[in-house]
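Most newcomers find our protein records easier to grasp once they have seen one. Read left to right, the backbone structure tokens trace the chain's path through space. Once this layout is familiar, the rest of the handout is easier to follow. The record below serves as our worked example for the rest of this section:


***
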Amino acid sequence: MLSHMVYFTLKDSSEEACQKLVGACQKFLKPHDGIQFFAAGRLAPEFERPVNVQDFHVALHVVFDTKESHDVYQVSEKHLAFIEQGKDNWDQVRVLDAYVD
């Protein structure tokens, strides 16, 4: 399986803007073939240990059954529409991909 984790730092990090991004993740990214696990949500600020990274606002976690499913997702119409709709409010986007069991 391939774990695809994306962390968004927003220009406008208001509650409304964060919820809009989480909603867009649900609408555009969740309905793809090959997804084994999907979750999107806001930073949990109460975790303030020295090892916790807190310089993002919204996290997206998607686990695909195969690399091929991930590759199809990356160029899908819905994924590209998601990027086009949201990119103007993205200050930073970090993507972490890993093979997991």
